[in-house]
Amino acid sequence: MIKKIISCLLALILSVVALANDPIRYGIIPKPKSLKPMAGEFRINRHTVILIPEEDKLIEEIAADFADRVKRCSGMDLRVSPSTSPVAVHNNIVLTLREGMGDEAYHLSVTREQITITASTPHGIYYGVQSVYQLLPPQIYGETAVKGLKWAVPCCEIEDAPRFPYRGLMLDVGRYFMPKELVMKLIDVMSMHKQNFFHWHLTEDQGWRIEIKKYPRLTEIGSVRRESPIGNTKEGDNTPHGGFYTQEEVKEVVEYARKRYVTVVPEIELPGHATAAIAAYPELSCFPERTYEVATTWGVKKDIFCPTAATFRFLEEVFSELFDLFPSPYYHIGGDECPRDRWEESTCCQDLMKVLGLESEDQLQTFFVQRMAKFLKEKGGKTVIGWDEILDGGAVPETVVMSYRGHAPAMRAVHQNMRAILTPNRWSYLDYYQEDPDTEELSMILFLPLEKVYHYYPIPDTLAKEKHPYVMGQQGSLWTEYIQTPRRAEYMAFPRAVAMSEVAWCAKEEKDWNWFRARMLKEFERLDSKKINYSKAFYNVLFHFDRKADFPKKVGLSIDYPEARIHYTLDGKEPTRRSPLYSDSLTVNRGNVIRTQGFLKDGRKVGKMIEKKF
Questions:
Q1: Which of 41, 433, 485, 600 could form a disulfide linkage to 152, CB 3.0–4.6 angstroms apart?
Q2: pLDDT in the model for residue 10
Q3: Is the Cβ–Cβ distance between 475 and 197 less than 8 Å?
Q4: Are residues 609 and 595 in contact, defined by beta-carbon separation less than 8 angstroms?
Q5: Are residues 196 and 246 in the same domain?
Q6: How many domains does the chain have?
Q7: pLDDT band at 453, cuts 50/70/90?
């Protein structure tokens, strides 16, 4: 009898362990803080009722959106009712508020009889609903009804809250304009993964992308360049490129984001990256008598805003129009890559430096940032975010430093008790290669595979614990010099942006690369349902080696697909399961050819055969 009880308990324990390790059953990304698996499932049917607090418009909005998504994908029309309404004690989805939890925290309980999402704010309720979506079949993200599918949520208990308050994604639309539909699609996928700040890079040397009614030439002239570079050459394509968002379109995007608990942070670049604005209004430059045009090549430009009364009036009037469009508490003002050449040449600037008692043009940039930060705080209640160059001429108190040149600038800020957001290029720039740079479409120069993105963490091990709260979080940045279309933007962003959602949501010790890539199998089905044109690098063998090293050189191989094994050949033949199994780095000489293929234990191929010639 005792043996029978022990064997039953052991079987129960093993079944629970099996449930917990099932990435399809519990494939939530980002990984919840804690998840207790349980046997059974809650089935959504036509009689399921969504219960909400009375007279809470935000939660009513979330519930209505949930009901609409279920109807769209299943045809079932769920009823939304106040929690005080007389309903059956089972087959309910209950959204309830409870004090004492963090703003974005939630508790999710799924039993056979009921789903309960508890949070202190509608924001937390919204995130609980996102986890329910991910527990459902991936088709929940589609746009058409699927017949015959079981809409079941596996039983579990989840306690969840983010590690960092800022979990962002940036889109540059200055180099290549992207339609609002792509912007909204990115915001939608961000919210699905509990990312909460969309950084909209709206102005550049190569194009001004937002309507400002007081200054119409910004879009009439500044939004169109006469041509773009061909590849990474200086040769032009003789094709005009332009585009901008009307204020009505901006309002539509911001409202779309609000419903998904994503804050849209606008960026208006200053004092550098201003060529498009100066082409429209030359009086904003230090030499208004010169002729300017919207930049037609990439790189840093010497024509920048001149710190005159006319320029500050212009910028203040631009931001005053933005106050009605972007309720975000944060506004980004750039501050990066600002050559001092024109300021050094300008008598006006040199006289201003004497009046202000400044010793260098770096300090003049600090003055520029200080003045705009003061205006944004006093007139709009906004906190300024700037790229890490805003530290170069001296720190500007109460600004947030967005560090892209590695960790050092962020740590300079943190040690001055300034807040920092990390987007270091080597780990967070989504315009870098993710497959083979020799065969992939032209991208920025570095190689940033999914695994490297995932292993990043914004807080260095050497940072004292009392300084950790100054690190606000992490952001992925999608620059578009070599990204001309929405499909290409999706390809470069995903799935790496999905990995970034876990980087910013989880504590370092909670991350698990093997568990993440197992969950990605269900994630790709979700992205398919949302018609995302993501990269397939996950399925293919990647080569890792030092391109600058002399021959013979060491070459490492990896594949992200879980439990896939790599077989390779050196004789030009196509790899089979009988080919050598990769276990350690290979030594290659000039002229060598390696062919690789991923295989599962049952013999199925993973991805495509990848060949590399050295």
A1: 41
A2: 52
A3: yes
A4: yes
A5: yes
A6: 3
A7: very high
